[in-house]
Specification:
6-stranded antiparallel β-sheet, 6 strands, alpha+beta
């Protein structure tokens, strides 16, 4: 199993990929090992914001969520098999150890997801 230093490095790298969009979003969690962004889109009945995604250190891995790929599954058509193997569910990518190439690919997917939500009018 990776040590916490690996997890912290992965977290910091992916957090930065999300954090550059803070001004377009609403920060809903920003604490040690947990960072999440939501859109400004609010459902009228319950006040819940549409989630954009974020990153969190879990017990055995670092989890990165990206909701645009759930809303637009076609975004995964050009994603590498290696990154797809990191998926858990429909919008979560898990990392147990640093992988510069896959983290770079995920960061590009985050950028594309933000653009897609902007095109939808959610950001």
């Amino acid at each position: 199993m990776s040590d916490t230093t690996d997890f912290e490095a992965i977290f910091a790298d992916l957090r930065a990929a999300y954090a550059k969009y803070e001004k377009k979003c609403v920060v809903i969690a920003d604490e040690a090992g947990k960072y999440y962004l939501a859109t400004h889109e609010v459902r009228a009945k319950d006040g819940y914001r549409t989630w954009l995604g974020g990153v969190e250190i879990r017990k055995g891995y670092v989890s990165a969520h990206l909701i645009p790929v759930y809303a637009h599954p076609d975004m995964l058509e050009d994603v590498s098999d290696a990154l797809c193997k990191r998926m858990q569910g429909k919008s979560c990518f898990n990392f147990k150890k640093p992988d510069a190439a896959l983290q770079k690919e995920l960061k590009s997917l985050i950028d594309a997801g933000v653009k897609r939500f902007q095109a939808d009018g959610r950001l």
